[in-house]
Amino acid sequence: MKILKNSFAAIIVFATIFSACQSNKNESQSAEASETEASGEMKPAFVANPQFIAKREVTTLEIGAKAPDFNLPGVDGKFYTLDDFSDASVLVIIFTCNHCPTAQAYEDRIKAVVEDYKGKNVKLIAISPNSPMGLLYEELGYTDLNDDYTAMQLRADYMDYNFPYLYDGDTEEASLQYGPVATPHAFVFDSNRVLTYNGRLDKVEKPGTTNSEDLRAAIDATLEGKPITEPVTKVFGCSTKWGWKTDMRDRVDKDWNSREVKVEDIDLAGIKTLLKNDDSKKLRLINVWATWCGPCMLEYPEFIAIQRMYGARDFEFVSISADKLEKRDKVLEFLDKKESGVPNYIFTGGDNYAMVEAFGDGWDGALPYTALVEPGGKVVYEHQGEVDFLELKRAIVEHEMIGRVY
User: Fold this and answer.
1) Digit-coded pLDDT (tens) for 33-61
2) What's the confidence (pLDDT) of residue 406?
3) Are 124 and 114 in contact (CB under 8 A)?
């Protein structure tokens, strides 16, 4: 008993010492974290939170007005204000976004402006004014990405942006003060941050035909302190997606959800016809799946999103269930829940190995299997297993039949 008491006492003493050491360690780590955060070496990650905004009248900033301040997160994780560009003789702010074909058409021209004016003390920043809440799948037919913060990071990295790209999609507080009409919309400010120009970059959307002549002329005149011949020009592009533009999204979702969902039979000959793709004149995406395949069911809604994105263009999505015929009701129940208002088939041939062989050498039989087929039967993308949907969307939108610009 004495030994037990002594052992118990020793444990209590050890626990007390350990607790004190841990407390000191935690306090030390907390202090170090505070010092690190204060020094700017460590900052909490920005988490986007788009908000509904009451509808209001939006007016575009007028020539002669001072630049409204802002405090916005960039794709690099830093927050930016006007003061961060206080040394610039000219500040260019371009409101642009990921999804708009017009915005994408001007990306390289914006990068060229940044590069060409490096030695002239001109700074350029881009701001995405769009609320992700106001964007429809059906508006994403020319892109692989929506306009949320994470998507902006992906786009900036993919296109190697040489300028800060800022997100204003939560409350659009800054964008409401500048009043961009469409993307892209450029604003040029002098050294006193007085607006000297607002409008287009140039007159022609098609890449490779112009070089931001209107914007460059405005920058040059502002640098020289000269009046701009045409200080306000009209802009062309996708309208700004304000946070109150949600009614249309609700209507479009409802229309899609009301589509009839059915499952038709398809045999081996039918599959070969789908793969030939001589009948549609569309880029055809085929997904083979089954209700007993967990990954198939988990990723399936992404294919419906893709159909909604590109369905108004030369594109169609087709699903083929590899379930046994007696599971037809289960297949239909799943597809109905996933609002699969597309051509849906269930294989009736009985010989799954023959079905696998019909798809060629790119499929060994593992589910799910996905193939993107051109008219005429050329397979331009295929994958067995779970899909990298960003890679797939890029394969679709960068195909010559689709494309990112008009």
Assistant:
1) 333 344 444 455 899 999 999 999 999 99
2) 84
3) yes
Residue where the block lists tokens 């302190």? 225
pLDDT tops 70 at residue 148 = yes
Put residue 179 in one of left, alpha, beta given phi > 0 → left and psi -120 to 50 → alpha: left
Q: CB of 221 within 8 A of CB of 196?
A: yes
Secondary structure of the chain in HEC code, one letter for each residue? CHHHHHHHHHHHHHHHHHHHHHHHHHHHHHHHHHHHHHHCCCCCCCCCCCCCCCCCCCCCCCCCCECCCCCEEECCCCEECHHHHCCCCEEEEEECCCCCHHHHHCHHHHHHHHHHCHHHCEEEEEEECCCHHHCCHHHCCCCCCCCCHHHHHHHHHHHCCCCCEEECCCCCHHHHHHCCCEECEEEEECCCCEEEEEECCCCCCCCCCCCCHHHHHHHHHHHHCCCCCCCECCCCCEECCCCCCCHHHHHHHHHHHCCCCCCEEECHHHHHHHHHCCCCCCEEEEEEECCCCHHHHHHHHHHHHHHHHHCCCCEEEEEEECCCHHHHHHHHHHHHHCCCCCCEEEECCCCHHHHHHHCCCCCCCCCCEEEEECCCCCEEEEEECCCCHHHHHHHHHCCCCCCCCC
Task: Tell me the C-alpha distance between 98 and 140, whole Å.
Answer: 9
Has residue 188 got a pLDDT over 70? Answer: yes
